Amino acid sequence: MAAPGPPSACIGRVQRFERLKTRMARLHTLSLAALALGLVTAAALTPATAAPDQSAAVDPFIGTGGEGHTFPGAVAPFGMVQLSPDTDTTCTIRDCYGHAAGYRHDDPTIQGFSLTHFSGAGHSDLGDFLMMPASGDTVSLEPGDAKVPGSGYRSRFSHANEQAVPGYYAVTLDDAKVRAEMTAGTRVGVHRYTFRPGDAAHLVFDLRTSLYNYPGKMLWSSIRLHPDGTVTGTRETRGWAPDRKLFFAMRFSAPLKDHAFVDTEKDVTYKGFQGPGRGSDDLPERLGRALVARFDFGRLDRPLEAKVAISSVDEAGAIGNLDAEPGDFDAIRTGTTAAWARELGAVEIDAPAPMKRMLSTALYHTLIAPSVAGDADGRYRGPDNAVHKAEGFTFRSTFSLWDTFRAEQPLMTLIQPDRVNNEIVRSLVASQQVSPYGILPVWQFQGRETWTMIGYHAVPVIADAYLKGIRGFDADAALDAMVKSATYAPYGGLGEYMKRGYVPIDREPEAASKTVEYAYDDWTIARMAAAMGRKDVAAQFGKRAGNWRNSFDVKTGFLRARKADGSFRTPFDPTAINYGSDYTEGNAWQYSWFVPHDQAGLFRLMKGDKAVVAKLDQMFEYDNSKIDYSHAEDIAGLIGQYIHGNEPSHHVAYLYSYAGQPWRTQERLKQIVDSQYKATPEGLSGNDDLGQMSAWLVFTGLGFYPVAPGSLEYVIGRPFVNRAVLNLPNGRRFTIVTDGLSDANPYIGGVTLNGKPLDRGYLRHQEIVAGGELRFRMQATPNRNWATARSARPFSTSTARKGG
Amino acid sequence: MAAPGPPSACIGRVQRFERLKTRMARLHTLSLAALALGLVTAAALTPATAAPDQSAAVDPFIGTGGEGHTFPGAVAPFGMVQLSPDTDTTCTIRDCYGHAAGYRHDDPTIQGFSLTHFSGAGHSDLGDFLMMPASGDTVSLEPGDAKVPGSGYRSRFSHANEQAVPGYYAVTLDDAKVRAEMTAGTRVGVHRYTFRPGDAAHLVFDLRTSLYNYPGKMLWSSIRLHPDGTVTGTRETRGWAPDRKLFFAMRFSAPLKDHAFVDTEKDVTYKGFQGPGRGSDDLPERLGRALVARFDFGRLDRPLEAKVAISSVDEAGAIGNLDAEPGDFDAIRTGTTAAWARELGAVEIDAPAPMKRMLSTALYHTLIAPSVAGDADGRYRGPDNAVHKAEGFTFRSTFSLWDTFRAEQPLMTLIQPDRVNNEIVRSLVASQQVSPYGILPVWQFQGRETWTMIGYHAVPVIADAYLKGIRGFDADAALDAMVKSATYAPYGGLGEYMKRGYVPIDREPEAASKTVEYAYDDWTIARMAAAMGRKDVAAQFGKRAGNWRNSFDVKTGFLRARKADGSFRTPFDPTAINYGSDYTEGNAWQYSWFVPHDQAGLFRLMKGDKAVVAKLDQMFEYDNSKIDYSHAEDIAGLIGQYIHGNEPSHHVAYLYSYAGQPWRTQERLKQIVDSQYKATPEGLSGNDDLGQMSAWLVFTGLGFYPVAPGSLEYVIGRPFVNRAVLNLPNGRRFTIVTDGLSDANPYIGGVTLNGKPLDRGYLRHQEIVAGGELRFRMQATPNRNWATARSARPFSTSTARKGG
Asked: Smallest CA–CA separation between A278 and chain B, in Å?
């Protein structure tokens, strides 16, 4: 920043530390070692009491170990910037999966702090524009070896000196001898580094690093120092998206004394000239494929701040984004802390200690994506790689739709309907309108398509929003986009699907999964079209909604892949999980249950409720001792053949209720929650997948779950909260109260809604948004009468009546 | 194009050919063989009589052999597009220099037709977006080996079947069995391909090829087929400029039946997914580093046209440029033919047969650059790689300033003053204002800086324009830009130059050349500042203008490089030419004469006129038999140590006149013209350098030359025309008449201006722009009295009087 920040003087005296000690107990505390270094700043000691209760219960470290792939760094709600530590970007291909969010809780060093991270993705990318402070006279421009301290700019650190709350992250860098703090606004990140008194302050800014940084990923980059001290630059990478441009603009709180822009690329046939004369490293510009910068500030008497904005559009956009959020570190942090308090306040949670932390953190994780992807001036980069302008909405991206259509997006329809209609749906439709393929996003980030996973699940997201009465978008354009996406023959065997009623496995891999997911998506088109009075479209897609039957093998009782000649592919092993197999990241056990819009029809094919319950039990209790899934990514969190770490299983525990045995759902939910979620870094049993794993817990914790988005119903499971309040955007409150919550009372005894007994096993969307009180009475033994009547079961038991 | 072009039916009957034969005599004729193939179109047979006399005299093949580096293809005056054949883009590094303009007249095959070419550059780049037609059932997507016919999409051709006139190029492709025609508008090129009746028509569009196509040059590219049939795309290359983005938009005259977008890149660690599903080649989009496209049209009953626009801004810019110039091949050709007639009409030339062709072609070559570089909507990419908008002018680039400040730009001040002020100067200043370095362009194309050659020669271009009364730009901003460029310490040893009064060779290579060129540029700043009343600036740079003396060694009589300690570097060999030597593409023989603003001062240091004449003779008559310059590029056209193929010598023949012996200048000019220019493909003895070699001939042919741009004077040499008329933009005519022009009369007998004897050896700029008649009388023997008086000699003999 041009204007220096307010003084944030080092303290460093032990007696003062002693006085503060009690207040610090609630934080990930700063160690005596950090104080001995003189590194602790006043801001770092600010206790979290200023934040409301809900933020204080969030632990951003949950999911940063194991397979969670979340990041602990600073992010504003749905922010474009995720400023977070990367513990290692020098991974080999296999390790990179574990570093998908840059940070692994068990790594011993931090390489630096970069601006972009996915929250729980199953693929490694981003990690743009990594910064690392350095002290003293010599500065290495290479990260060095994590096993050899001092071999590069990376630094050892200790979790004891680390703190993370929503919008703020801090750590003491032991080798760099610097206290590092991060905060983030919507499109800016602010670094604050406190150096030891007397140490010369430097920053290393590495444009080469990336999450999953294979050879050739970097297409081009540039960095430029402007006369006013602003630093801008860009990089283009070929990564998860075929290509991606990202721009930054950065200002420092202290005047720059010197700098070096170094091109480390070797073995280039021809580089031409770079810069006037002989291109010294202190020139104002450098372009190349392997750039690293050093900024030198000399000795400072206050912490050094570096405020950075990004843009997918251009450098002017990044400068505009920087200017759009004025203020220093503390100002940005204050704003973001308030924003988190506001957003997290949508669901007040009162639950036993570990559950409150798990649920609050889960809620936090649901509020990170889809991220803002458009600039403050409305411009954004679309799937055509061209720049467009969003009129009247903020363009959003990071659409992990195969995951998030299930529970993450339905949660948004309750607590963020404005974002769903004004921003997410409009962003999806705007993307379709400029897509080179004319279809809705599949897995898109920063406006760029990755073609990851299957289905056209932007469709249920839009339909669910429309059917819930969210109408802040052009419904005709949206329906047009949905139909185009569902009829684009080259996409994932859709041509064959339209011709045959199923995707043939000898023409298209993962055919069984595609067939059933397409059929569900089709049903949501039919539902929305019917609501819009578009009978032709409703009829066309209503018919297609039944296509799941064409891939179901009544003989084995499993969903199976059929060949073009109509036969099921053999050999058939319902436990096999392989890439390019009949299923997508799963097998027949998980996928055979995927008919959210017609479970009744499915159960009939499965020979009735009794057989269904037996099959569900068989799934949960499967003996995996002879099975090895170590070759398959994202297969984690196994309970028999129920795999909670990946999405196809997410609705399955609720199916007992459809079969008339809700107490079995209640049992399974406790089993899943107890085994798959923990209030620790290893607390997520699989990738959080941009909030889906967390949204499952939020809904399940409240006592209900959207098994079939588009149905306007939520299936009642069982609550894990003492009390929770949905503070709805319409000003109403929907309160969940649980009487008798304890491990000893795993079963629902009875339910009331607004004081009246609720005998059915599901809630209607309008009942929630109307506000009111849902009251559970828990007991030690199953209530085998509650919500078991056929008429009391979730909607899908009566699909025929409800259309589709 | 969406609308098909008018019918252009194949003729193919021999009797009709016989009737047309006479009319075709003036063309590079089409052979009987071509007709037998059925390839000759009506348009191709249109004789050039429609074009005015001046265009008809232009032979675009001049300079396409030897070291000329010109291209024969289609270009509009100063056009952004240069649509021209590339005979080989698969050169090795050494060969690439010879293919700097894509086409070598002695190559046996054409690889394809690409959209961008430099006219006579000393460096290979461009050659963007190469197209090649293909006939029949199988189409190769690789160029193949020129030595193995049929091994790829390239084709043999014969000069007998080739035609080139301004704005139009045609050739019969023997292997492809296609007649190919090219035309170009300002920002569009139009291909027209006539296939044999019954042959399936295809186009290969290769995004991989480039002039000097070393490994890694291609950073990224993309191609996309839009629903309306428009094809767009981009590529980013690291070439002469550190990076360069170019976009295209293309439409065809016939409906597309099929297409393939193929990614030929191998050995990539990770490519991600490209396009929906499994990414077949017929999807509407492809991105990658090695793309080639095939377009299939089936059998056509009329020629196929492909109209392509380019843009440095974005694909929308390219589409806008395509739309801004409506019309089919014939319409674009008609417009460009008229534009050439208009622009070439600025100088009417009546000269003996080969000279008329040489001069008309030279004039044509001066009207190609600086090219339009901004889009039809005013947007352009600047040296900061960002997009800007030109308000009230068209942004131009391709500034080969070290070459063109000498004669090309001064010629423009006479025949194109609007372009000089409104476009060239404004483009230069606009570039400076967004330059990361804050300085004027050095060697810039498509808005991107290459840092090639030395000096800040945008400065004399602007000063010369200002001093000549061209004022359509902000003079204060221009002077500011000039001063900043002349005081930017990191550029080419300028910091040392400002400190010491010369560039020290132990701190900066090519120090001697830099010192004298800086001193001249400084003098032009002083001149312009004085004219603006900016005495401080005039004084500062007037002083610097004398710095050339600090590098002149009176003892040896040569310009030499000094070291920081003040001594001249040894050993000293005035004939040595090496990279990184004391001089830039030259040696002491050529560079010692470079004091255009103070030849009188130089001559005094050289011990007077007599010694000067002896030294000039020694230079021209130097025995090179023991010297080998084959290691040095751009050293061609040697007459002793006078090297006409490169720019430092260009003014030297005129210096005899400064020394009081104008008849010796007259002799040398005839010697140079006779030996260095021919009306053949090998007709340029060195790179045309974006018009400088040609501008030398235009001026010299007219009888005068701008030895010192900024002086407002032209030194009289001797004319090579019978008669010429400068049709000045102010509506006046300045006529040159030569009585007694013949090889037998190499000397000027006398000169009159507007009927009155002109005894001085120079013309004033205002005398030309006032219009009038300059009449030469030629004779067989020298007139040793004309223009020999000291007061009659060119201005620089009296520098002291004129300031600077």
From this structure: 7
